[in-house]
Write a sequence for this structure.
C-alpha cells in the first residue's frame, strides 16, 4: 500500500481523557486550517480531533514495543488522540495533511468501523481522488503517511480513540521497513 500499512496488533489498555492526568496539546476543530477541506462541502460540523500528551511511564511502555533502530533514528512523540463527534450528523474528520509530522504509527483503542481514507490531490482542479482506505479494529497498529491527504469517515459511534506515535523526519518507506515491510 502506498500510504498506509497494517502492522499487526499491539495490546494496550483502552484510555479515555478521564483515565490519566493528560495534558491537552491541541484541539483541531477549524477545518479551514487545512486547504484540502476547503475543496469539499459538508452538511454537518466536522468531528474535532483532540491530542493529549501521555505520562512518561505510559509513553515509555509503548516505545519499548517498537523496533530499537526506529527509536534510535528519531525519538517520536506519543499522544492520545480522541475524536468525539459533536453531533450524530457529523460524518468526518475532513481531508487534511498533518502539518507537525510526516508519518505516524496509530494503535487504535476505541473504534467502530470508521474508514480512514487517503487521497491523491489535484491542485489544478482542486479535487481529491480516493486511492486507499482501511477500517481499523481495536489494537490494530497502522503505519500512515500523514504527509498525504487523508480523512476519517465516522460511523454512528460517537467517538474514536488511538495512541498516535508521531515522526517528523522518518519517511513512510523507511518507517515500514523497520517492521520488515516494503
Amino acid at each position: 500500500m502506498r500510504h498506509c500499512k497494517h502492522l499487526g496488533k499491539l495490546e494496550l489498555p483502552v484510555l479515555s481523557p478521564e483515565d490519566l492526568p493528560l495534558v491537552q496539546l491541541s484541539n483541531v476543530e477549524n477545518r479551514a486550517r487545512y486547504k484540502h477541506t476547503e475543496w469539499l462541502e459538508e452538511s454537518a460540523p466536522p468531528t474535532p480531533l483532540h491530542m493529549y500528551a501521555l505520562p512518561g511511564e505510559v509513553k515509555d511502555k509503548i516505545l519499548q514495543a517498537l523496533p530499537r533502530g526506529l527509536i534510535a533514528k528519531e525519538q517520536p512523540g506519543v499522544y492520545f488522540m480522541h475524536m468525539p463527534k459533536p453531533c450524530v450528523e457529523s460524518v468526518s474528520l475532513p481531508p487534511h495533511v498533518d502539518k507537525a509530522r510526516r508519518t505516524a504509527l496509530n494503535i487504535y483503542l476505541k473504534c467502530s468501523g470508521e474508514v480512514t481514507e487517503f487521497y491523491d490531490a489535484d491542485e489544478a482542479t482542486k479535487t481529491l481522488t480516493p486511492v486507499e482506505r482501511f477500517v481499523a479494529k481495536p489494537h490494530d497498529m497502522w503505519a500512515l503517511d500523514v504527509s498525504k491527504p487523508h480523512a476519517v469517515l465516522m460511523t454512528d459511534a460517537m467517538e474514536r480513540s488511538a495512541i498516535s506515535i508521531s515522526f517528523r523526519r522518518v519517511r513512510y518507506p523507511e518507517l515500514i521497513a523497520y517492521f520488515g515491510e516494503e
About this structure: The longest strand covers residues 127-135. Helices lie at 56-64, 68-73, 172-177.
